[in-house]
Amino acid sequence: MSDRRKDMPVKDPASKDVTPRDTPKSRRTRLQILDTSMRLFAELGYDRAGNAAIAEACGLTRGAMLYHFPTREALVEAAAWHIHAAREAMFEAEAAKLKPGQDALDGAVDAYWRLLSSVPFSAFLALERAARQDADVAKAIRPAQEAFDQGAMGNATPGFITAGIDARFQASRDLARFALDGLHRAALTYDQPERVENLINVIKRALHMLNRKGDVHDLWVD
């Protein structure tokens, strides 16, 4: 990983055989490191949020940081799972906000669009960007990526969608997720609010058509 060359070796000789004790204080410190990592990845990006910057933001010494995460790989893998859990928790919270009679498909799209701007989603996007250039980062975050891919807007959020897991449902889920991901990253240079609203409405209508919900037969409303 590129960060390894910046602020820490692969493994510190003094700490290579040390396993952090599972105490309340140790768990609090570990959680603080992971929360701070998530925030700094979102705010600064992967490369600028090095282990030294994370330790400083936590008020920890380099030795204390190494005690909990001896390598950059260990921190990134743990951070990826921590961020994954945060994203799932946010989905569950959004699902609980559904109002009686509210369309679950439309609710899922609206929730996903809102959450794309949140700290956990921004943090994982920073890791995915780094993974395109760094094989170690890609390897470290791959399990969390796969878990999210399996659950996004589906199994992890039963309050939103309960249509099943067949190919039609999978296609509609993927269409919504990747269209919204792309829209979020796009640089719209004019009429942004109107274009975003139109595209999100098209995505919703496409989902209704794919899932044969209601009487939607056209992607565009004249």
Automatic annotation (TrEMBL):
Name of the protein in question: AcrR family transcriptional regulator
SUPFAM superfamilies in alphabetical order: Homeodomain-like (SSF46689)
Signal peptide feature range: none
Basic and acidic residues: compositionally biased ranges: 1-25
Region entry Disordered, spans: 1-27
Lineage per the UniProt record: Bacteria, Pseudomonadati, Pseudomonadota, Alphaproteobacteria, Caulobacterales
Gene3D superfamilies hit by this protein: Tetracycline Repressor, domain 2
A GO molecular-function annotation: DNA-binding transcription factor activity
Organism: Asticcacaulis endophyticus
PROSITE patterns in alphabetical order: HTH_TETR_2 (PS50977)
Alphabetical list of Pfam families matching this protein: TetR_N (PF00440)
Stretches assigned to coiled coil: none
Record feature DNA-binding region, as residue ranges: 50-69
Keywords: DNA-binding, Transcription, Transcription regulation
Residues covered by the HTH tetR-type domain: 27-87
InterPro entries per UniProt: Homeodomain-like_sf (IPR009057), HTH-type_TetR-like_transc_reg (IPR050109), HTH_TetR (IPR001647)
PANTHER family: HTH-TYPE TRANSCRIPTIONAL REGULATOR BETI, HTH-TYPE TRANSCRIPTIONAL REGULATOR RUTR
